[in-house]
Amino acid sequence: MPAEAEGSCFALNLEDECLSLRPRRSDRSTMLSWNVYSQERRRGNCPLVLGAVACIVLLHAPSNFLKAESSPEGRVPEGRWAENAPHSDRGSWPRFRGPNGKGEVDGVEFPLPWKAEDYRWQVKLPGIGHSSPVVLGEKVFVTSGLPESGTQILLAFQAQDGKLLWEKRYPGQLHRLHQFNSYASSTPALDNRRVFWAWAVPEALVVVALEQSTGQELWRRELGPFVSEHGFGSSPVVIGDTVILANEQDGESFIVALSAETGEIRWQTPRRTVKTAYSTPCVFQPQNGPPQLLLTSWAHGVCSLDLQSGTPLWEIPVFRYRVVSSPCLVGGFVIASCGEGGAGRQLVIVRPPESQGDVPKVTLQLSQDIPYVPTAVGYRNLAFLWSDRGVVTCVDVKSSKVLWRERLGGFYFASPIRIGERILNISRQGEVVVVGAKEEFELLARFAIEEGTHATPAVAGDTLFIRTFSRLAALPGRVSDSRSRTDASRR
Fold this sequence. Notes:
Radius of gyration: 22 Å
Helix content: under 10%
Oligomer: single chain
Distance between the termini: 46 Å
CATH superfamily of the largest domain: YVTN repeat-like/Quinoprotein amine dehydrogenase
Largest sheet: 5 strands, antiparallel
Structural class: mainly beta
CATH class of the largest domain: Mainly Beta
Shape: globular
Number of strands: 39
């Protein structure tokens, strides 16, 4: 990271496990706050004032950073955030890592171990892709890319029997990718009747909307060049009647909100540029106030935007490395990580502000055996951190205590998901590992399947959908009473 972040009145220095934000000497308006911060840090109270300093960064940011560029439509209409969204029940998995990116489901169980003959169906996929399947009702959608041409492919299958319903192809082009990336690493998103699909070539970042039943193109929006040494990978999300995409790249960066109906830009918020980020946002609902968009990147750390206008609300620019994993909400806390060289280097747990006047606070930082690519998953107040190199850590987010850490081995790009009281992940080598979602470590199963994966599984209805390097498979389960047990335990 440069000594002085572009577009900010602060120079960022990160020493040990604590954030240091030094104002420029010419910026006298922040010197008092900086002096208070320095005194508190010397007393060992850095985490207590971290959020306050982060808010100062936001308040002193330049106007072109604070202002969201809006279309003539202006702000996103009030009261329409859930109008077109798929129901958040067991029958849908409408985006990367399911409803609001939480990666969890209750009320269904799957056999452990399972075998190839246990699948309801398997289909061969064209090309290669690391995107995850998304599901709504009777349809499952997945993307792929042809490595010889860069051609983009979206396929729709019948969820019950794997029958191909339609296939849509767009011309692509060969361009530079990381050796572990693909031309189809972005997961599509769904509302009740459309599928939203994003991909990028150097000349253009593209978002298209297709009719779910036929694959007919409804609209297409090109968002300018995409510059990255490793390729594209962020996924769109649907929030009500709005499609949101995080475009934090090596070139011009911004977060954009599009009308789900027309593709018109509702707002576009510029972002500082410090290496391409691959994270997908989620929604945080504070106790008091409207919902917020949560994002993570090297340039902005953990931050929040107003969903209606795209205006930045708060940020903690704590990260020192590239962000690939996505923010995850567990027990009211935000979990986010960054890394380099195939390993996580820095993970933070943040308590976001719940009311006006509150400030965000980093409650825990970890730097050993943490995820870089995989996103965390939670159960009640427990966060499960699954590292790229097969180390699983359980943290109580409310007490900030590490309860256990176990080295299971393997290499992982897929994110873990929670199914009832089980945490499941699949390695790049094709090993399924399942641990208990408990305060004490419990290994429930580990077994090999036919092929490895980089893609996070999806669960909808009574079916686990697994996308491997070359196939899409559907594993039937059975409805259980774990949902009622879980709900009862929360009362």
